[in-house]
Structure to design on (234 residues):
């Protein structure tokens, strides 16, 4: 199965026209023709079964044959992850977390963050591509970058965790996780969270956790955390 994505397609339509870029990809690259079936999602859980009615490489038009709503995720997993110094590492995290199954991502700017300027346009495209590749119909929400202080001062529900490397008492994430509860996890930059940030998180009821016995890179820690939550809720 091959999955296509467009955020504007909805269940009230009987037909749909792809934009020029996607039309060219479908007709010129994939060599699809009239009568071929395309599976399309809008990233909101809907899977549309469509048939190409006009095989134009500028305005590929499909007729919607039927649609179904996919089952919603059991929980809401939100990872707040500091940007990495090398941008491609953060992009790798976005791709893999989407494949594993994440619902929301927020880049957080910390005291020790080396990268302060974040361009989310490319990040968004990576999420869309990973969603299609893994045949999922829910596109993770990508928030605009926010300071660590502002993030922890926003209202949150469910379990709250902060993974850090300070030599203080921490609990194992895998042992602390509870099934069927929303989860928010903070993952710091290469230089870790500052002592001040860790204390501020404690004050907001974030539980300090360990992700294992080895020291992990930011993007690796985020993937370990993501997989642990998803595995717990399978």
């Amino acid at each position: 199965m091959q999955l296509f994505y467009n955020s504007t397609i909805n269940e009230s339509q009987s037909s749909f026209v792809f934009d020029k870029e996607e039309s060219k990809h479908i007709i010129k690259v994939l060599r699809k023709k009239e009568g071929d079936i395309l599976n399309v999602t809008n990233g909101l859980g809907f899977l549309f079964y469509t048939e190409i009615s006009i095989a134009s490489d500028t305005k590929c038009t499909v007729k919607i044959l039927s649609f179904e709503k996919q089952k919603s995720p059991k929980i809401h997993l939100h990872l707040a992850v500091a940007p990495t110094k090398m941008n491609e590492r953060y992009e790798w995290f976005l791709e893999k977390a989407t494949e594993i199954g994440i619902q929301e991502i927020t880049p957080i700017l910390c005291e020790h963050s080396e990268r302060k300027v974040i361009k989310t346009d490319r990040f968004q495209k990576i999420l869309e591509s990973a969603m299609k590749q893994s045949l999922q119909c829910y596109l993770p929400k990508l928030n605009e970058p926010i300071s660590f202080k502002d993030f922890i001062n926003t209202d949150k529900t469910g379990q709250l965790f902060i993974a850090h490397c300070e030599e203080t008492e921490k609990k194992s994430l895998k042992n602390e996780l509870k099934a069927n509860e929303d989860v928010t996890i903070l993952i710091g930059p290469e230089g870790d969270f500052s002592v001040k940030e860790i204390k501020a998180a404690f004050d907001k009821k974030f539980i300090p956790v360990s992700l294992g016995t080895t020291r992990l890179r930011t993007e690796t820690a985020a993937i370990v955390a993501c997989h642990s939550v998803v595995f717990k809720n399978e």
Remarks:
- The two ends are 23 Å apart (CA to CA).
